[in-house]
């Protein structure tokens, strides 16, 4: 079984109250930093929830017991519903305002506070770091919801039961060095393996429907890249890759320690261009989780379901004697400095 398909165990992270408290100690400064960087991950309310959990020994004991029993983080309204009254009241006393208390009792605040940090803690442990100091947060910088949660990149209307019309090909421009173009090709091909996506390479950025560039965003760590979601008719979708990061540029090999797989990040961002919002970590492991995971490089089951819902299942490759052109074919010229030749995006 590949690392991407393995189920991770959370019980080993929180065997007792002391472990929960150490984890919360670690998450609070990370959450504060994340709240400053992007509102898709965590906000000030979730920070308040973590700080309340840090103060409540009863809540720490309850979280540890629930994780041990279920091998999962307690989630949302269900967790609050089964929480003993004494624990619930102790947490309510620690929250600073009435609206925070109301959000906690509805379950939403607890879910945001607990579920977002799990993949990050796993990254820290998998990389061999001790949980003793704040670690880097690697996130997508997308902050905006789609104007329509069922959005497709071409803004094709949804009539309540199906799409009106077939999706048209994506015109894609990458205004970046060859290494970024090659990683983009790899990323797009990964999406073409799971849905009926057609991509055309467009040399003119003004004529493209999706434009990917590079440049500084916020320095090393933090925001890795961003991509707009479909948000209106005839709006070009712009994305950007942060040049300050330590990128692993070869998408077909594994990154070294503390290197970030560029192909995986571009694959995530292109998913946004297709109309897919972030998948909450509480729903499971997905490429479109807000935080970068080094073991998730391509669309997972949750991502593929969203892509197929919008674009249909992957098209079969035509037989050689059909006379039809390869569906979804795109070409791009790369300079001799990288590997001269014509690269093709071909469905497999």
From TrEMBL:
SUPFAM superfamilies: Metalloproteases ('zincins'), catalytic domain
Source domain of life: Eukaryota
UniProt keywords, alphabetically: Hydrolase, Metal-binding, Protease, Zinc
GO MF terms held by the record: metalloendopeptidase activity; zinc ion binding
Keyword Metal-binding annotated: yes
GO biological process, one term: proteolysis
One GO CC annotation: extracellular matrix
Residue intervals of the Peptidase M10 metallopeptidase domain: 214-293
Protein name: Mmp24 protein
Organism per entry: Symbiodinium pilosum
Gene encoding the protein: Mmp24
């Amino acid at each position: 079984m590949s690392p991407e398909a393995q189920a991770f165990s959370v019980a080993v992270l929180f065997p007792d109250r002391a472990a929960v408290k150490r984890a919360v100690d670690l998450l609070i400064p990370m959450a504060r930093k994340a709240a400053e960087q992007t509102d898709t991950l965590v906000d000030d309310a979730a920070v308040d929830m973590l700080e309340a959990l840090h103060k409540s020994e009863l809540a720490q004991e309850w979280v540890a017991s629930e994780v041990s029993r279920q091998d999962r983080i307690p989630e949302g309204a269900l967790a609050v519903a089964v929480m003993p009254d004494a624990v619930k009241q102790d947490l309510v006393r620690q929250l600073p305002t009435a609206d925070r208390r109301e959000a906690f009792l509805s379950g939403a605040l607890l879910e945001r506070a607990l579920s977002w940090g799990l993949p990050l803690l796993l990254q820290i442990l998998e990389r061999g770091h001790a949980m003793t100091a704040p670690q880097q947060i690697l996130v997508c910088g997308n902050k905006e919801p789609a104007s329509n949660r069922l959005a497709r990149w071409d803004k094709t209307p949804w009539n309540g039961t199906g799409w009106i019309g077939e999706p048209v090909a994506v015109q894609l421009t990458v205004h970046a060095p060859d290494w970024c173009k090659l990683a983009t090709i790899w990323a797009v091909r990964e999406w073409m393996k799971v849905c009926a996506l057609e991509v055309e390479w467009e040399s003119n950025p003004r004529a493209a429907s999706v434009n990917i560039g590079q440049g500084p965003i916020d320095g090393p760590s933090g925001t890795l890249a961003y991509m707009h979601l479909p948000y209106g008719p005839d709006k070009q979708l712009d994305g950007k890759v942060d040049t300050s990061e330590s990128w692993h540029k070869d998408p077909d090999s594994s990154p070294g320690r503390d290197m970030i797989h560029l192909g995986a990040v571009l694959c995530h961002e292109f998913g946004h261009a297709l109309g897919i919002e972030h998948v909450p970590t509480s729903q499971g492991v997905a490429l479109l989780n807000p935080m970068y995971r080094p073991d998730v490089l391509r669309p997972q089951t949750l991502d593929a379901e969203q892509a197929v819902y919008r674009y249909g299942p992957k098209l079969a490759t035509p037989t050689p004697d059909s006379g039809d052109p390869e569906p979804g074919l795109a070409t791009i010229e790369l300079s001799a400095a990288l590997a001269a030749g014509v690269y093709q995006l071909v469905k497999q």
